[in-house]
Design brief:
- Helix content is about 50%, strand content about 0%.
- It is built from 43 helices and no strands.
- With about 725 residues, it is mainly α.
- Helix 40 packs parallel to helix 42.
- The longest helix has 16 residues.
- The chain has a domain of about 130 residues: Serine Threonine Protein Phosphatase 5, Tetratricopeptide repeat, CATH 1.25.40.20.
Length: about 725
C-alpha cells in the first residue's frame, strides 16, 4: 500500500530498493533502521514534500529518544540533500524552542540569517512565540534585528511580532539591539509596534514604545489594520485610549481599507462599550464617518442585541439613518431587519427619517424581513410603503420567500401585489421540492419555462438536480421544456446536466427516456461541462456507462474557458485509471488539444499534473504525445507538470518516452521544467533534470531564491559555471 502511494516520488537504484528499505524501517528498530528513516525524511524534506508539522514531530521524537548524536552524525555530510534537511531541522528546532539543537546546528554552520519557508527570518519566528532566550542567541550570532517582513498578509518585523504577543521583555531586548520602533508595516494587515501593543491592552508596553518614539498616528494598513487608537477602542480599553489621546492620537483618523476597517468610534461601538462611545463622541469623533463595512450606526445595529442603548446614543448624536453604507447586505434599515431588532427598532429608525425603500445595492428592508422569515415585520414594512417588487442583487422578496419555503409569506406578498414572474420564485420552490408551493405560484400565473436569472435554473432543472422524479413529472405535465438551455450564468445546466452533477442516476435515466438531449451544449460559465463531463468529474463510472450507452459524444471538445477539458482529460487529471481505459476503449481522442483557456491540459499533461503514474503510463501506451506543447495560458508540458509536483517516478517515465527537458514554457506564467522544480524546491528533480541536459537558466535561480530554496539556487549556480 505504501509503495503504491509513493512510488511516483522515488527513483530506485535497483529493483526492490524501496521495499527493502521500508522493511528495515517497519521491522525491529535498529541503528540501521534509524538511518533508513532519516534518509527518507531527508529525501522528502529536501524536495519540499515533507510538511513543517511532520518535521516538528520527527525532531521531537529524536529528542525524546535521546537520538541527537545520531542526527548530528547523519547530518555531518555536506551534500545538497542534507543541507536542505539540516535547514529544515534548524527551523523546526526554532519552532519547538529547543535551544540545544539550535546551538548544535549554528555551530555546525547553519546560517541564522537565511529566510525560512514562508519568507520569515528565524528571529521573526522565535519572536512570534516570545522565545527570549532563542532571540538573544540569534542576536549574538549577528542576525539583522530589522530584517523586512515576509511578503505576506499580516507579516511583521521581529519587534512588531514581539509587540503583537505583548512580550515586554522581548520588546526591550529587541529595542536594545537597535530595532526600529517605527518600521514600515506589511501593506495588507500589517501593524506597527504601537498598534500591536495597543491591541494587546498592555499599558506598560504602550508607555515603553511611546517613550521610544513610536508614532501615535501611524496610518492603518489596508484590510485588517488599524491605528493604535482604533486598536485600543476595538478592545474597549479605555485606559489605553486615554493614554493615546493624551499623546496626540487623531480621534478621526481614517480607517483601514477593506470591509474590516473601523474608525475609533466604530471600533468602540463594536466593543459594546457605552462609556467609551460617549467619551469618543465627547472627544470629537465623527458619528457619520464611513468605512467599507458601514457607519457607527450600522455597526451598532449589527450588534444590536449586545447593547441596544448604543443605537439611540448615536441617533441623538446626529447619526444619519439614511447614510449610504456601501455594505453588501444593504442600508441601515435593512441591517435593522436582518439583525433581528424587531418592529420597535425598525420603527425607531423610520421615526428618525429612515427611507423604507433604500437598499444600497443589498437587501431592501422588506427583503431582509423576508430573509428572517419575520411575517409581522414584513407586513409592517408593507404598511409603511415598502415596494413588494423591489429587485436587488438578492432578487425579489417573493423569490426569497419561495427560497425559504415560507408559504405564508409567499401568499402575503402575492396578495400585496408581488409579480410572480419578476424573479424566478417558481424555480426556488422547485429546488425545495415543495409541490404545494409550486402549485400556488403556477395558479398565480408563474411561467413554467422562465428565463433563468442569476444563479437560477428553470423549475425542471432544479427538480432534476434534487432527483425528484415525481416533481419532474408534475412540471413536465404542466409544460416544462425538458431541453431548456442552460443559463449562461454561473451554475447554469440543462436538466440532464443538473441530474448528472448530483449523481442522480434514476433521474438521468428518466430524462434520457423522456427525450433529453444527451449532447446539449454546456454552460459557458460552468467550464463547459456536458453531462458526460460531469459524470467523469464525479468519478461516477455507472453514470458514465449509462451516458455512453446512450451514444453521448465522447470527444466533445474542451471548452476554451478556465479549466476546460475533454472527458478524457478530466478523467486523466483526476487519476481515475479505470475511467481513462473505458474512455479510450470507446474512442476518446488521446491527443485532443488542450483548452485555449487558462490551465488547459492534454490528457497526458493532466495526468502528470494530477500525479498518477498509472494513468501516465496508460496514456503513453495509447500513443499520447509526450511533447505536446504547453497551452498559452498557465499551461504545462507533461514533464513540467511532474517537475512542479516533484514526482521523480513520473518524470523518469516521461524522459524515457522522449520528453524534451528544455521545452518552452507557457506564454503566460509558464515555467520550464527546471524552473518549476526550482520554484517549488524539488532538489532531486532539479538534479535529475540537470543530469539529462536541462539548462540552468537564471530565471530558475531567481525562482529558487525568491522562494527560500537556497540550496537549489546554489546547485543551479554551480552548473552555470561548468
Amino acid at each position: 500500500m505504501i509503495y503504491t502511494q509513493v512510488r511516483d516520488l522515488f527513483l530506485e537504484r535497483y529493483d526492490g530498493e524501496f521495499i527493502r528499505s521500508m522493511g528495515k524501517i517497519i521491522g525491529r528498530f535498529t541503528q540501521d533502521a534509524m538511518l533508513q528513516y532519516l534518509k527518507f525524511a531527508a529525501y522528502l524534506s529536501s524536495n519540499n514534500i515533507l510538511p513543517a508539522g511532520h518535521i516538528d514531530r520527527l525532531l521531537r521524537w529524536i529528542i525524546d529518544n535521546n537520538l541527537q548524536p545520531t542526527l548530528t552524525a547523519f547530518c555531518s555530510s555536506k551534500t545538497p540533500t542534507l543541507e536542505v534537511f539540516v535547514r529544515h531541522i534548524f527551523e523546526s528546532a526554532l519552532r519547538i524552542q529547543d535551544t540545544d539543537v539550535v546551538q548544535r546546528l549554528l555551530e555546525a554552520g547553519c546560517d541564522p540569517s537565511l529566510r525560512m519557508r514562508g519568507g520569515y527570518t528565524p528571529l521573526q519566528v522565535v519572536s512570534v512565540h516570545g522565545y527570549s532566550k532563542l532571540a538573544m542567541m540569534l542576536l549574538d550570532w549577528g542576525v539583522d534585528v530589522n530584517a523586512a517582513p515576509a511578503e505576506q498578509y499580516n507579516a511583521c518585523t521581529a519587534l512588531q511580532v514581539a509587540a503583537t504577543v505583548g512580550d515586554v521583555k522581548l520588546v526591550q531586548i529587541l529595542l536594545d539591539a537597535g530595532a526600529y520602533v517605527n518600521a514600515a508595516t506589511a501593506v495588507r494587515g500589517g501593524k506597527t509596534t504601537l498598534q500591536s501593543s495597543a491591541a494587546t491592552g498592555n499599558a506598560e508596553l504602550v508607555h515603553l514604545l511611546l517613550a521610544a518614539g513610536a508614532d501615535v498616528n501611524a496610518s492603518a494598513a489596508y484590510e485588517g489594520g488599524g491605528t493604535a487608537l482604533q486598536a485600543a477602542a476595538k478592545k474597549g480599553n479605555a485606559e489605553i485610549v486615554r493614554i493615546l489621546l493624551g499623546a496626540g492620537a487623531n480621534v478621526n483618523a481614517d480607517a483601514a481599507g477593506g470591509k474590516r476597517g473601523r474608525t475609533a468610534l466604530q471600533a468602540a461601538v463594536e466593543s459594546h462599550d457605552t462609556d467609551l462611545v460617549r467619551f469618543l463622541l465627547a472627544s470629537g469623533a465623527d458619528v457619520n464617518a464611513k468605512t467599507g463595512d458601514g457607519s457607527a450606526l450600522w455597526v451598532a445595529i449589527h450588534y444590536f442585541h449586545s447593547n441596544p442603548e448604543l443605537v439611540e446614543i448615536l441617533i441623538n448624536a446626529g447619526a444619519d439613518v439614511n447614510l449610504d453604507t456601501y455594505n453588501k447586505h444593504g442600508g441601515i434599515l435593512s441591517e435593522a431587519a436582518l439583525a433581528g431588532g424587531g418592529i420597535e427598532l425598525v420603527r425607531l429608525l423610520i421615526n428618525a427619517g429612515a427611507d423604507v425603500n433604500t437598499d444600497d445595492d443589498g437587501y431592501s428592508a422588506l427583503q431582509a424581513a423576508v430573509e428572517k422569515n419575520n411575517i409581522g415585520l414584513a407586513q409592517f414594512l408593507i404598511n409603511q410603503g415598502a415596494d413588494v417588487n423591489a429587485n436587488t442583487t438578492y432578487g425579489t422578496a417573493l423569490s426569497m420567500a419561495a427560497s425559504g419555503g415560507n408559504i405564508a409569506l409567499v401568499e402575503l406578498l402575492i396578495h400585496e401585489g408581488a409579480v410572480v414572474d419578476y424573479e424566478n420564485a417558481l424555480s426556488e420552490a422547485a429546488r425545495l421540492g415543495n409541490i404545494e408551493l409550486v402549485q400556488i405560484l403556477l395558479d398565480a400565473g408563474a411561467d413554467i419555462n422562465p428565463i433563468p436569472a442569476v444563479f437560477h435554473r428553470t423549475p425542471l432543472q432544479e427538480a432534476a438536480a434534487t432527483g425528484n422524479i415525481s416533481l419532474a413529472k408534475f412540471l413536465m405535465d404542466a409544460g416544462a421544456d425538458i431541453n431548456a438551455p442552460a443559463s449562461s450564468l454561473h451554475h447554469g445546466k440543462t436538466a440532464l446536466q443538473a441530474a448528472a452533477e448530483m449523481g442522480k442516476i434514476e433521474m438521468v435515466q428518466f430524462l434520457i427516456n423522456a427525450g433529453a438531449d444527451i449532447n446539449a451544449a454546456a454552460s459557458i460559465a460552468d467550464s463547459g461541462k456536458t453531462a458526460l463531463h460531469t459524470a467523469v468529474y464525479r468519478d461516477n463510472i455507472t453514470l458514465v456507462q449509462i451516458l455512453l450507452n446512450a451514444d453521448t459524444n465522447v470527444n466533445v471538445p474542451a471548452h476554451n474557458g478556465q479549466y476546460g477539458k475533454t472527458p478524457l482529460q478530466e478523467a486523466a487529471y483526476r487519476g481515475n485509471a479505470e475511467l481513462v481505459r473505458i474512455l479510450i476503449k470507446v474512442g476518446a481522442e488521446v491527443n485532443a488539444p488542450a483548452s485555449k483557456g487558462e490551465y488547459g491540459r492534454t490528457a497526458l499533461q493532466a495526468a502528470s499534473d494530477g500525479s498518477n503514474i498509472e494513468v501516465v503510463q496508460t496514456l503513453l501506451d495509447a500513443n499520447a504525445d509526450v511533447n505536446a506543447p504547453a497551452a498559452q495560458m498557465r499551461g504545462i508540458t507533461a514533464l513540467q507538470g511532474a517537475a512542479i509536483r516533484g514526482h521523480l517516478g513520473i518524470a523518469l517515465v516521461l524522459l524515457k518516452a522522449g520528453a524534451d527537458v528544455n521545452a518552452l514554457p507557457s506564454a503566460y506564467e509558464g515555467r520550464t521544467a527546471i524552473g518549476a522544480a526550482a520554484e517549488y524546491g524539488r532538489l532531486d528533480m532539479v538534479q535529475l533534470l540537470l543530469n539529462v541536459g536541462a539548462t540552468p537558466h537564471e530565471t530558475a535561480v531567481e525562482l529558487a531564491t525568491q522562494n527560500g530554496h537556497h540550496v537549489v539556487a546554489n546547485l543551479l549556480r554551480d552548473y552555470q559555471t561548468l
